[in-house]
Amino acid sequence: MYTKDETSKLKQAFWTAFGQYIAPQLSAEGQKINWINYRTGIRYLSFKMQADNRSAFIAIELSHPDAGMRDLLFEQFTAFRTLLSTSLNEEWEWQPELTDENFKQVSRIVKSLDHVSIFKQSDWPALISFFKPRIIALDEFWNDARDSFELFS
Q: Where are the domains of the chain?
């Protein structure tokens, strides 16, 4: 087991390494971008990457506190399901309602990778290979679809 401080340092080391690795990649608009803290420009709508000692996931997370608004946002993504799947070149899991790690109600469109640990440096190449193409694909999708979500900003 790791101490809280060791856990924090290992996670920080991974995300720093990932950030340095992906930094040269420009956005779909040809701009420098902070890939780790991707800004969608829509409140309560985020692209989330997370890894722990067992697995990792990347997700579109809808966290609006109003369930009705969250449902509307999810429905809007449903209308773009084909474009999203084409951009990602794979199917993701659609979760209209779940409780997140902070006990908040959210909706997610998510892709997971099991049997990896952010605490094992030998797993970092697999994690980077998992996250990088998917966050780039999400950016390409968002570049095409963003205007249709402006009413939620």
A: 4-152
Burial 116-149 (b: 16+ CB within 10 A, else e): bbbbeeebbeebeebbbebbbbbbbbbeebeeeb
For the sheet containing 55-62, what is the strand order?
45-51, 55-62, 105-114, 93-99
pLDDT over threshold 80, residue 20: yes
Tell me if residue 55 falls in helix, strand or coil. Answer: strand
Count of C-beta atoms within a 10 Å radius of residue 80: 16
Average pLDDT of the chain to the nearest whole number: 95
Provide the whole-model pTM: 0.93
Bridge partners (DSSP) listed for residue 35: none
Q: Which fold has domain 4-152?
A: Yope Regulator; Chain: A, (3.30.1460)
120 to each of 11, 51, 79, 123, 125, how far by Cα in Å? 10, 11, 39, 5, 10
